[in-house]
Specification:
Radius of gyration: 29 Å
Low-confidence stretches: 259-264
Mean pLDDT: 85
Structural class: mainly alpha
Order of helices and strands: HHHHEEHHHHHHEEHHHHHHHHHHHH
Distance between the termini: 71 Å
Strand content: under 5%
Number of strands: 4
Shape: elongated
């Protein structure tokens, strides 16, 4: 059976996106009608990467209708410490399975109603069913948690799932959000609608929280406060989860007349936002450290510089965005946490690690292994082959990463060591290229030497703002012209 499923997955991976979407709709429709004869879950799991890219309208299921109440709070991460406003996707399956075991007859009734509404595409009916289902799901979830607390829960599988304190916390968070799901969705959609009118909506994302969107967010927040008290923080958390740049939610804090100081923010119901932003920043710093060159992993040539650059940019953008929106004092707990992320990056991108990056940039000018006649490490060029395409690309990416640190890392203590590394690379390029030009003066037609110089010109164009790259290029062209003459 497993072999057949693997073969099926391999076949589904090759489907064009349009065919994948059509197949998914067919499978989901048959499943909603209770007529599926195919392994629906396995097929949909295999198609999920294509579906995420295409983002088509999905056929509703009972679970999906229930999850619509807290979809803005779903995350892929599974952190040990749970924070309000975040529900790991991994907890959906045990939660829904617990409800199916707790209320099987009621769910069967809802499934029959769903099967009636899906074929005729009754959107209004599906919306009504979703609201009723979410109210029921909230009640069932609370009942399950109450039984766990009183140790009267009979279902063994649910008891086993809820042994995990994190899963228990997720069930409670789902219940808390479902209790305010309908007015909360209305508030979030109202803010998104204002962003859309300003051209700042991208799917469910809010590209920028404009002044008009902040005004709407403030109105929705205050209105929610009047009816739901401290649960109004979920308005801010939901908006934050929709923002392309989450730190812009701090603009809501400013609009609520808070002074731009984190000490005051921590004492409000929105202190959780600061905690979330700090935790995200810490996670971004850990991601950079994980991707950074490490000697025990080998040379910097094995580093995924595209991912590393993306992670570094995300950290820089997040940190500077937070600092520009709010006053995080250096001597406050949050300020100290921000400074610690900078220290962590300094350790992850110290001299040893940057030396690995330099090696990757210089790999297009390889040296012979061993020692020279003078008993020192060899400085003779290795002219066995022209630089491979992969080596060239890695050298260019390493150079771009160094320039990112040099140009944007000053506020984070990363600029100065990066500039020193770049200057060291410059000296090494000068020495190695001189040896190559010596070789060309003897053998002007030496294709490998010429290819290495041409490649280091491309690296130099990234690293240096002066005319070093142009000088190398001009020197090579002049030497090649004289050889032809």
């Amino acid at each position: 059976m497993e072999k057949k499923l693997e073969e099926l997955k391999g076949l589904l991976d090759t489907l064009p996106t349009a065919d994948a979407v059509a197949l998914a709709r067919k499978v989901e429709t048959q499943r909603a009608l209770g007529r599926s004869e195919l392994p629906a879950e396995e097929i949909l799991a295999a198609l999920r990467p294509q579906l995420r890219r295409a983002r088509p309208a999905r056929i509703p299921t009972l679970c999906r209708l229930a999850c619509n109440g807290f979809e803005d709070f779903l995350i892929d991460a599974l952190d040990e410490t749970r924070l309000p406003g975040l529900v790991p996707r991994a907890s959906i399956a045990p939660w829904w399975q617990a409800l199916e075991r707790f209320a099987p007859q009621e769910i069967k009734t809802y499934e029959a109603e769903l099967a009636r509404l899906v074929p005729v595409n009754d959107r209004a009916g599906l919306d009504r069913l979703g609201e009723v289902l979410r109210r029921s799901a909230r009640g069932w979830t609370e009942a399950v948690l109450a039984q766990v607390e009183s140790r009267k829960l009979a279902d063994r599988a649910t008891r086993k799932a809820l042994v995990d304190p994190g899963v228990q916390a997720d069930f409670a968070e789902i219940s808390r959000i479902l209790a305010i799901a309908e007015p909360l969705r209305h508030a979030l959609e109202a803010v998104t609608a204002v962003a859309a009118r300003a051209g700042q909506k991208d799917g469910r994302r809010i590209a920028e929280l404009t002044a008009d969107a902040v005004t709407e967010a403030k109105q929705q927040y205050l209105r929610f406060s009047e009816t739901h008290g401290l649960e109004s923080r979920y308005v801010a958390l939901g908006i934050m989860n929709r923002l392309a740049r989450p730190w812009e939610i701090l603009r809501l804090g400013r609009s609520l007349s808070w002074k731009p100081m984190d000490a005051l923010m921590r004492d409000t119901e929105l202190g959780i936002i600061g905690q979330r932003l700090i935790r995200d920043l810490e996670a971004q710093a850990r991601e950079v450290a994980l991707l950074a060159p490490q000697r025990r992993r080998g040379a910097g040539g094995g580093v995924d510089y595209a991912r590393l650059e993306h992670a570094m940019l995300l950290y820089i953008e997040s940190a500077e965005g937070m600092l520009s929106e709010f006053g995080f004092r250096r001597d406050s707990p949050w300020g100290e946490q921000i400074l610690e992320t900078r220290a962590a990056l300094g350790r992850a991108l110290g001299p040893d690690q940057l030396a690995e990056v330099a090696e990757a940039a210089l790999a297009v000018l390889p040296l012979r292994r061993g020692v020279s006649a003078r008993g020192l490490a060899s400085d003779d060029p290795d002219l066995g082959a022209s630089p491979a395409a992969g080596t060239i690309e890695q050298a260019l990416r390493a150079a771009r990463f160094l320039m990112l640190l040099a140009q944007k890392g000053e506020r984070h203590g990363l600029s100065s060591p990066a500039r020193a590394t770049v200057e060291g690379i410059g000296n090494e390029i000068s020495n190695r290229s001189d040896r190559l030009f010596e070789e060309l003066s003897v053998r002007p037609d030496h294709a490998v030497a010429a290819a290495q110089i041409a490649t280091i010109v491309r690296v130099s164009e990234i690293l240096f703002e002066d005319d070093r790259a142009q000088t190398l290029s001009r020197r090579l062209k002049n030497m090649q012209r004289s050889a032809v003459a």
